Amino acid sequence: MPLDGSGMWKPSVADLRTDTLGFGEVGTVGGVGQLIYKLFRFKKYEMQNADGEILARPICRPGFEPEFFDSDGLTGADILASLYNLALKINDFSEKKPFDELIMDWCQRVAHPYFVDELAALMSEDEFDLAHESFFIERDGIFDVNDFMHDLGKFYQVASFAFALDMILKGYDDAAFNLADEGRYFEGVPFLEKYKGELPEMSDEIDDTPVTPEDLIKEMQEARRNAPPVHRNTIEEGFATLPYDDYYILRDKLVDMMPDFRMRLKVNRKKNIVVLAADIHSVFDIAWYTLAKKISELPLPEFKHEEEEYDICDNPVILICPICGNAFVRVGKANRKIYCGSPECNKRRRAQNTRNCRKRQKVASMQTDGADTE
């Protein structure tokens, strides 16, 4: 987290809209190296099932040329939000499409997921000839969709925890309340369950009578059957105890869930300089680095007012829509948008505003009638 000379929180001078984050740009405390990558996407994939693997082979040949993005065309924040929303869709029990179909649709719309550095470097060479070297691109670009699902599930679990913790810091608990619920494919995060209700009191008496493992299992089963119900709050009621009070403990758990990052020397061809940069082999590497950047710039709870100022500055902010739960990137100074802006969410938001307006009018009318009768 960037601090000034007095140890006070200050906004980072990094430009999160760029693909390159230098050590100097992220402050003197912590930070990550530069991100240098060149994303691209293929128009079509061929699928093959073999020995439990779902192999996706990109089609790269004349007529199916890959499309490259400009450095400002697809940011790390865009990748993070897009992967999170893909996981949310795959994990939804009401989703009818199989996960491999959803993943391949994402790859064709957004970016090829793996071997980003290697394939981009090969296709960027001056002597590269698509007509004669397409076989090597297609061969080296093959990936297992099951590997994608594994990487996506791990990222989604940590990202959802990070978003929930961010909302807790801002005083909103709804996003965190059902964090432990398991979806169609991915597990939830159980760290917030203990704040939902008080656990039954434990007896101080110690029974040192020897028991067999079978007896212990029976005893636990019997205790579970006879235990009084534990009070569970609804979302309207909120948590029984505040997760906010344990913010630092929860934050440390989040940090422990983050992967290690690998740095090495790379050549920035655009500027023709050598930089200490992050290894980028997949879109998940980009998303992990972006998430780490987001976490590292969260202010401490005692500086929440500075965070509110940071949220309305020029830096992009990744938010969760309170209606649909999708992630979106908000850009622009003084932009206080909190909804994703999709037609369905706008429709539900207008309906909600109408209900709230009618409720306020009804309350005002009742208050007026009561004053007239006095």
What does this structure look like?
This protein has 374 residues and is of the alpha+beta class. It has one domain. It contains eleven helices and nine strands. The chain has a three-stranded antiparallel sheet with strand order 2-3-5, sandwiched between helices. Strands 1-4 form a two-stranded antiparallel sheet. α1 packs across α9. The radius of gyration is 25 Å and the shape is globular. The termini are far apart. The N terminus is likely disordered.
Keywords:
single chain, 374 residues, alpha+beta, three-stranded antiparallel sheet, 11 helices, 41% helix, globular, disordered N terminus
Topology (elements, then pairings):
Layout: E1 40-41, E2 45-50, E3 53-58, E4 67-68, H1 76-90, H2 99-109, H3 116-123, H4 130-140, E5 143-144, H5 145-169, H6 174-177, H7 213-226, H8 247-257, E6 263-268, E7 273-278, H9 283-296, H10 304-311, E8 317-320, E9 327-330, H11 343-373
Antiparallel strand pairs: 1-4, 2-3, 3-5, 6-7, 8-9
Helix pairs in contact: 1-5, 1-9, 2-5, 5-8, 5-9
Helix-and-strand structural type: alpha+beta
Helix fraction by DSSP (H/I, runs of at least 4): 40-55%
Largest sheet: 3 strands, antiparallel
Q: How many distinct helices?
A: 11
Radius of gyration: 25 Å
Please tell me the total number of domains.
Answer: 1
What's the short version?
The chain has 374 residues and is of the alpha+beta class.
